[in-house]
Design a protein that fits this description.
The chain is 39% helix and 22% strand. By secondary structure, it is of the alpha+beta class. The strands form 5 sheets. Strands 1-11-12-13-16-10-9-4 form an 8-stranded mixed beta sheet. The longest helix is centred in the N-terminal third of the chain and has 37 residues. The protein binds one RNA strand through helix 3 and helix 4.
Length: 431
RNA sequence: GGAGAGGUGGCAGAGUGGUCGAAUGUACCUGACUCGAAAUCAGGCGUAGGUAUAUGCCUACCGUGGGUUCGAAUCCCACCCUCUCCGCCA
């Protein structure tokens, strides 16, 4: 959420910056709502003030045993108009709030201006494209050949975009997650957290998934009381529960930065991506991810972003995977982000780079919705900055390891760093 | 699932339908005392918003949402959450 004060004082600048990401801000409507809000709020507060002072007089008069019918009749009139004004004011505030919640974050000045992912800027390439002396197989073929990947059974159990992993593949999948967690906790100073996978609507609103992107989520309806229904949601990323840990909190400054890592399943309905990446593990309704979250002082957030990006990259380096880092352009960054780097890993079977991590600085955008603040000494509480990045998407990392480490006979050599997690096994073969 | 207790400022904890935005303690800040610290004393200290430029005034907020009333932290209703005991359970 953007700061409403900034919109009030500097509407045209905000509109211009949002325009770079292809968002049209209806400045006229905002102006109208604001003008109406102002007029009605002033009138409402006037009436409230009058009611309060009159009520006080009534109390005092009654205490003296005087007659109060005249003044009570007067206050009754105030009450009628007040009721009307309060209703109108409430409606206006809801409308303004809805408008505000629908506005994306402003891209940081350093973000390259562009319209689509074609305008993203490559920052660096690490490693080189591996060469194979044989026709490469994709991960589906490899996985099925190893007897560890079964989409048909998954389809029977659940449906499309689910998978069943077995044997060595299932173990390697688990090994990857363990390896990532251990690396981030032991070497990068993150605190491991275990969090709920089902969250309430307030949490989804806090990190920006609601109200705009409900169709991307799996909703869990829940009966509350006798009549009310209140939805829960399956998390689309650990970002949601982990970042929401600081919702409505005031963190003492000396505790910053907070660095959390969580391994969770992620659930995405993938509405609107029908027909895209239907083969294999790339785009699933359920997948595992190790997520890095940092909650930092506003002055530190861009340094923290570089650091976090490096932490995610180090996993790929240790696995010996070739990748590149891409800076997303204004037209391609997500709703809540001010700046985003994507890490794309090389997939030989697709002969292309595929996103395996996305690292973003949200500045105060999420913190404002979350009311996540810090306090320094006696100073006023100020909004924190939040960041997160995948470190990494486990399923896609498994794909990358399988495809990049395949051998001519369809077996897969296991990266050295994973071997301790796999009982010392060096090569994954058909069982 | 059954029974009970409770949700008030950073924390703890009072609160009678009428100057209650809220006592008190504690933490914190400033000043005094001190070489300095502790102790003591004095003062300050919630959040959000409006108005505007005045060290000013006003409004809202006591779990959430409704209701009663001229007036609600206080009364009524519904819900949420926490804790204790019993039952069941991975």
């Amino acid at each position: 959420m953007l700061d409403i004060q900034t919109l009030r004082t500097d509407l045209t600048t905000v509109a211009a910056r949002l325009a770079t990401r292809g968002f049209v801000l209806d400045t006229e409507r905002f102006g109208e709502l604001e003008a109406a809000r102002k007029a009605i709020q002033v009138r409402t507060q006037e009436l409230q003030s009058k009611r309060n002072s009159s009520s006080k007089l009534i109390g005092q008069a009654k205490a003296r045993g005087e007659d109060t019918t005249a003044i009570m009749a007067e206050v009754a009139l105030v009450g009628d108009e007040l009721k009307l004004m309060e209703v109108q004011l409430g409606e206006l505030q809801v409308a303004l709030q809805q408008m505000l919640e629908g506005l994306p974050n402003m891209p940081h000045d350093s973000v390259p201006v562009g319209k689509t992912e074609a305008d993203n800027v490559e920052v660096r390439k690490i490693g080189s494209i591996p060469q194979f002396g044989f026709a490469v197989k994709d991960h589906v073929e490899l996985g099925e050949g190893l007897g560890g990947l079964d989409f048909e059974t998954a389809a029977k159990i659940s449906g499309a975009r689910f998978s069943v992993l077995k044997g060595g593949l299932a173990r390697m999948h688990r090994a990857l997650a363990q390896f990532m967690l251990d690396t981030h906790t032991d070497q990068h100073g993150y605190t491991e957290v275990y969090v709920p996978y089902i969250v309430n609507a307030d949490s989804m609103r806090g990190t920006g998934q609601l109200p705009k992107f409900e169709e991307d989520l799996f909703r869990v309806p829940r009966q509350m009381g006798e009549s009310g229904e209140q939805n829960f949601y399956l998390i689309p990323t650990a970002e949601v529960p982990v970042t929401n840990m600081v919702r409505d909190e005031i963190i003492p400054m000396e505790q910053l930065p907070l660095k959390y890592v969580a391994h969770t399943p992620c659930f995405r309905s993938e509405a609107g991506s029908a027909g895209r990446d239907t083969r294999g593990l790339i785009r699933q309704h359920q997948f595992e991810k190790v997520e890095l979250v940092q909650i930092v002082h506003p002055d530190e957030s861009y340094a923290a972003l570089e650091q976090l990006l490096g932490h995610a990259e180090s996993i790929l380096q240790m696995l010996g995977l070739h990748y590149r880092v891409v800076r997303l352009c204004t037209g391609d960054i997500g709703f809540s982000a001010a700046t985003t780097y994507d890490i794309e890993v090389w997939l030989p079977a697709q002969n292309t780079y595929r996103e395996i991590s996305s690292c973003s600085n949200f500045e105060a955008f999420q913190a404002r919705r979350l009311q996540a603040r810090f306090k320094c000494g006696t100073g006023k509480p100020e909004l924190l900055h939040t960041l997160n990045g995948s470190g990494l998407a486990v399923g896609r990392t498994l794909v990358a390891v399988l495809e990049n480490n395949q051998l001519a006979d369809g077996s897969v050599s296991i990266p050295e760093v994973l071997r301790p997690y796999m009982g010392g096994l060096e090569v994954l073969r058909a069982s």
